[in-house]
C-alpha cells in the first residue's frame, strides 16, 4: 500500500509539473526580462530627466515612484502568466492593499506629504531650510522622506508627512538676506562715531549687495548699556561666512578706535550702607 501511495504521489506530481511547468518557465523568463526592462527604462528615464529642465527634487521623486510602479506592474504580469485571473488578482491586491494601508498609515501620510512638497514647493533640493529644529541643505526628496545635510556633516532623514505639516524656514528661497549684528555700547560713547566706524567696516566686504542699504540704528536703551543693530545685505548662499567675517571686522574696527564693549557696573554708596547698619 505504501508503494502504491508513493506511485500515485509521483504520478500526481508529474502531472502537476506537466500542467504548470510551462507557466513556471514562462514566469521565470518573464521575470528576468522584466527586471532587465525595468533597468533599461529607469536608465532611459534618468537620462531624460537629466536632459530636461525639471527640478532635482522632482527628479528624485519621479524616479522613486517609477521604480515602485514598474515592480508592481511586473508582479501583476507574472501573476497573469501563472494563471491567476485578473479579477482574482485585483481582489487579492485590493484586500492586501487595505491591510497594508492600515498597517502603513504613516507611510501613506509621508507619500501624501511628498506630493504636497512637490506641488507647493516650500523648498527644493539645494535649499537651506530650518525645520523641526534642524538646519541644513536639502539633499534629496523621495516618495516618503526628505534628507538634509547639516553644517557639521550630519545627514538627517525626516518623514515627508511631518515636514509638510511643519513650519519650514527656507533661508535660500529669496536671492538676498539681511545680516543683523547686535552691538552694545556704554552711554558715554558717541552714536555718530559708532555709526561711522561700523558702516565703514561693513562696506569693505567684497560680497555685499551694493544696491541695498548698510546702516546702524539705536535698537534699545538697556539698564547698563545702549544696544545698536548694524545691518547689511548679502546673497542668501553667502550668509553665514559673511556674517562671521563682518562681526569680526566690526570688532577689529572698534578696537582700533579705542571703543570698548561695556561692562555692567554697580554703584555702592557707603553713606546709605552705614545708616542701614546703625538701624
UniProtKB/TrEMBL annotation:
<dbReference type="InterPro" id="IPR049278">
    <property type="entry name" value="MS_channel_C"/>
</dbReference>
<feature type="transmembrane region" description="Helical">
    <location>
        <begin position="65"/>
        <end position="84"/>
    </location>
</feature>
<dbReference type="Pfam" id="PF21088">
    <property type="entry name" value="MS_channel_1st"/>
</dbReference>
<dbReference type="InterPro" id="IPR011014">
    <property type="entry name" value="MscS_channel_TM-2"/>
</dbReference>
<keyword id="KW-0472">Membrane</keyword>
<keyword id="KW-0812">Transmembrane</keyword>
<dbReference type="InterPro" id="IPR023408">
    <property type="entry name" value="MscS_beta-dom_sf"/>
</dbReference>
<dbReference type="InterPro" id="IPR045275">
    <property type="entry name" value="MscS_archaea/bacteria_type"/>
</dbReference>
<dbReference type="Pfam" id="PF05552">
    <property type="entry name" value="MS_channel_1st_1"/>
</dbReference>
<protein>
    <submittedName>
        <fullName>Mechanosensitive ion channel family protein</fullName>
    </submittedName>
</protein>
<feature type="transmembrane region" description="Helical">
    <location>
        <begin position="24"/>
        <end position="45"/>
    </location>
</feature>
<feature type="domain" description="Mechanosensitive ion channel MscS C-terminal">
    <location>
        <begin position="181"/>
        <end position="261"/>
    </location>
</feature>
<feature type="domain" description="Mechanosensitive ion channel transmembrane helices 2/3">
    <location>
        <begin position="66"/>
        <end position="105"/>
    </location>
</feature>
<keyword id="KW-1133">Transmembrane helix</keyword>
<dbReference type="InterPro" id="IPR011066">
    <property type="entry name" value="MscS_channel_C_sf"/>
</dbReference>
<dbReference type="Pfam" id="PF21082">
    <property type="entry name" value="MS_channel_3rd"/>
</dbReference>
<dbReference type="GO" id="GO:0008381">
    <property type="term" value="F:mechanosensitive monoatomic ion channel activity"/>
</dbReference>
<feature type="domain" description="Mechanosensitive ion channel MscS">
    <location>
        <begin position="107"/>
        <end position="171"/>
    </location>
</feature>
<dbReference type="InterPro" id="IPR010920">
    <property type="entry name" value="LSM_dom_sf"/>
</dbReference>
<dbReference type="InterPro" id="IPR008910">
    <property type="entry name" value="MSC_TM_helix"/>
</dbReference>
<feature type="transmembrane region" description="Helical">
    <location>
        <begin position="90"/>
        <end position="120"/>
    </location>
</feature>
<dbReference type="InterPro" id="IPR049142">
    <property type="entry name" value="MS_channel_1st"/>
</dbReference>
<keyword id="KW-1003">Cell membrane</keyword>
<dbReference type="Pfam" id="PF00924">
    <property type="entry name" value="MS_channel_2nd"/>
</dbReference>
<dbReference type="InterPro" id="IPR006685">
    <property type="entry name" value="MscS_channel_2nd"/>
</dbReference>
<comment type="similarity">
    <text>Belongs to the MscS (TC 1.A.23) family.</text>
</comment>
<dbReference type="GO" id="GO:0005886">
    <property type="term" value="C:plasma membrane"/>
</dbReference>
Amino acid at each position: 500500500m505504501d508503494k502504491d501511495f508513493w506511485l500515485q504521489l509521483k504520478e500526481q506530481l508529474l502531472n502537476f509539473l506537466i500542467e504548470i511547468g510551462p507557466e513556471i518557465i514562462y514566469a521565470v523568463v518573464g521575470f528576468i526580462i522584466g527586471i532587465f526592462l525595468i533597468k533599461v527604462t529607469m536608465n532611459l528615464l534618468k537620462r531624460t530627466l537629466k536632459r530636461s529642465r525639471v527640478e532635482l527634487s522632482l527628479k528624485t521623486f519621479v524616479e522613486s515612484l517609477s521604480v515602485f510602479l514598474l515592480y508592481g506592474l511586473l508582479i501583476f504580469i507574472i501573476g497573469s502568466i501563472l494563471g491567476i485571473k485578473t479579477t482574482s488578482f485585483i481582489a487579492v491586491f485590493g484586500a492586501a492593499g487595505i491591510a497594508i494601508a492600515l498597517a502603513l498609515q504613516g507611510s501613506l501620510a509621508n507619500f501624501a506629504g511628498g506630493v504636497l512638497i512637490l506641488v507647493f514647493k516650500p523648498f527644493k533640493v539645494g535649499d537651506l531650510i530650518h525645520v523641526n529644529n534642524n538646519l541644513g541643505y536639502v539633499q534629496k526628496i523621495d516618495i516618503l522622506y526628505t534628507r538634509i545635510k547639516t553644517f557639521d556633516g550630519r545627514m538627517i532623514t525626516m518623514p515627508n508627512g511631518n515636514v509638510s505639516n511643519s513650519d519650514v524656514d527656507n533661508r535660500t528661497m529669496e536671492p538676498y538676506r539681511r545680516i543683523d549684528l547686535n552691538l552694545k555700547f556704554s552711554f558715554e560713547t558717541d552714536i555718530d562715531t559708532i555709526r561711522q566706524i561700523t558702516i565703514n567696516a561693513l562696506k569693505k566686504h567684497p560680497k555685499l549687495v551694493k544696491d541695498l542699504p548698510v546702516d546702524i540704528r539705536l535698537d534699545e536703551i538697556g539698564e547698563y548699556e545702549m544696544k545698536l543693530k548694524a545691518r547689511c545685505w548679502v546673497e542668501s548662499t553667502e550668509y553665514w561666512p559673511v556674517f562671521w567675517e563682518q562681526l569680526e571686522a566690526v570688532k577689529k574696527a572698534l578696537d582700533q578706535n579705542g571703543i570698548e564693549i561695556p561692562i555692567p557696573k554697580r554703584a555702592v554708596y557707603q553713606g546709605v550702607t552705614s545708616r542701614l547698619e546703625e538701624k
